[in-house]
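To fix ideas, we close by showing one paired sequence and structure record:
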Amino acid sequence: MEKTPDYVPPKKVSSKVLAIVIVLIVIVAGAGIGVYIYLHPAKKESTLVVLVDSGSDTQQYLTQIAKTFESENPNVKIKIDSVGYSDLVSTSLSALKDKASSPGLIMYYPSGQPTLAPYLMNLSKSGFNLSNYLPGELYSGSYVLNTHGNITKTVGIPIHLVLGYVIVYQNSVFDNKTIQTGFEKKYHFSIMPSTYKNYTALYDAASYISMEMKNLSYNNHLKYPLMFPDSSHHAMIDTYMSLLYAYGENHTKATGIAKNSGAGYWTYMGNISGSYKPTFNNTYGEHAVEMYKNLTEFEPNIKTTPIGYSEQETLFPTGEYAMGLAWTSFLPGYSNKSISKVAGNYNVSILPNSSTGYEPTYMGVNPYTNTSLAVKFLKFALSDNEYKVGINKYQYLPATISGLKVAETNQNFTWVPALVKSASLININKTAVAVYDKLQALFATLIPDLNNEIYDYFTEATTAPAALNTAAGEWSAYIKNSGTVL
């Protein structure tokens, strides 16, 4: 009888390898031949949880991109979880402090960066091409800086370029020759929003449209000249930021706001007489908040219908407002013909004094997750090929410079070049950004402090100087009591 060949065992499998090699020995009857079959179970599936703001454009975009990524990466599952805007920071912070592995990728906005930055992974050596971004995007929420304005950490990568605020306006109102001629005769400048040199011009345009509402009766839906955000929940700090910058940047000595530094949360803290202080409790801050109040007089009373994010998103598409302020992230909804009466009948312009700020959406990486997978998926989502899908399918505005060039070829983004040109003129005040980075209570404490005081002024419970001085005092007290060194 022929001798069965000696069995030579396979090399020892490392205990770190999860797959178990199963050896089956089948002896073929009569032939005396040993057949050895090694079966390797399928590789274990990896899951990456991505936390996003519920209902956001980024949730929609990443849900689509995840499907493509999964098809190209077998055994990988991308799970998109969402929470409401108000819970985004607290939910993320809780997970990071607990060193939980999930969520792996975390969406955040500029206002949440100071709170989350100490806990997010440093992405400076993760291979992201940061030269492919507008500087204002990176300094608005990607970078952490030291007191000298030097970058010490990169905590997030912009994924969605959101600009705010911009002016949106109905073409059928502003292209009216009678309206144009009458306004120019009265005010001696164009009524077109792209020409406004200051906020007084915006106020004059809204006032004139208010007087001419009867002559605009062909627009059956039109009820109000201007929609201007005034909700104390959050919108006030974003709106006031643009006005404060416009009124204060030419008066650096008094306000501490550097000229041509661009509107951002850094606008609220400036170098005044050698130390960093709130920038708004002065004559120019008062002028800004007074004009802010004036611009809200063309809409329903703040006590009955405050205008916040959700109202901005849903009210302008009704066609009831001749113009209004909006985040660029709202534009897809405005263009949706199934729900919007202004679809195909609106245009976009930056705010006066180039005070349209950067409010990108960022993605940060949890250092306790599968970081290599998180970085890989994020890079995939930032690629021009995937951005093209977002542009064409969802009107999703890319954060990268190369992605913006792709967007410019789309008919919905004809306004992008003007915004990019304006962005190129901004000279970021890096030391002011460094101070802003230290205000970890910005979202939870400082924003409500300022918003509540502005609300009291709007509702005539206090005066403009008293409101701003009180808010500045609360900010200064927080900084002192928390031991924050600016």
In short: The CA atoms of residues 262 and 426 lie 6 Å apart. The longest strand covers residues 46-53. Residues 1-38 have pLDDT under 50 and may be disordered. The longest helix spans residues 464-481.
